[in-house]
Amino acid sequence: xxxxxxxxxxxxxxxxxxxxxxxxxxxxxxxxxxxxxxxxxxxxxxxxxxxxxxxxxxxxxxxxxxxxxxxxxxxxxxxxxxxxxxxxxxxxxxxxxxxxxxxxxxxxxxxxxxxxxxxxxxxxxxxxxxxxxxxxxxxxxxxxxxxxxxxxxxxxxxxxxxxxxxxxxxxxxxxxxxxxxxxxxxxxxxxxxxxxxxxxxxxxxxxxxxxxxxxxxxxxxxxxxxxxxxxxx
Length: 233
Description:
The protein is of the alpha+beta class.
């Protein structure tokens, strides 16, 4: 009987030891899996960052027309800024922007002081017959990278609305140059101007016009009533 009890106790002890070993193995397995997951995540993050830098997409450079869309009426003056959201070691640029010359007439293409002085104006052109404006300028110094804040525009184009319709403000053949003469890759974003013939009236003008029209309608109605009364007699 005592021998059976000893065997039973021994069996319980072995079972308990096996349970503890299984728990330890489970904890080790989970810890190893967690370590592998963290290592894989770090590897994936580093790989994506390296790929973005290698393909030049980490800090994209975009030349864009602002505002993106604007409305105008005949005779209005229309201005469009050409902005650059990011540039590193920029020392010069050339901009071409086309427009619909049946809707807009270009007045000027002005430099706005983006580059560090001294600067040299290479070309400043307004061509209404061909429907484009151009600006090219160089600096002897390198500008700091424009990654935030509110830097001035690269240029501002001014137009007069002369026709009804829509005109795209299309950037093309744009060039950005670094101080060492190398080209800086970039993207462009165009703008648009919609011109209509009906002007927007201010409240100071709209109220007198409304009162005059109301008086004319009332007078016409009274005259019609009198004519009807006379005919009835």
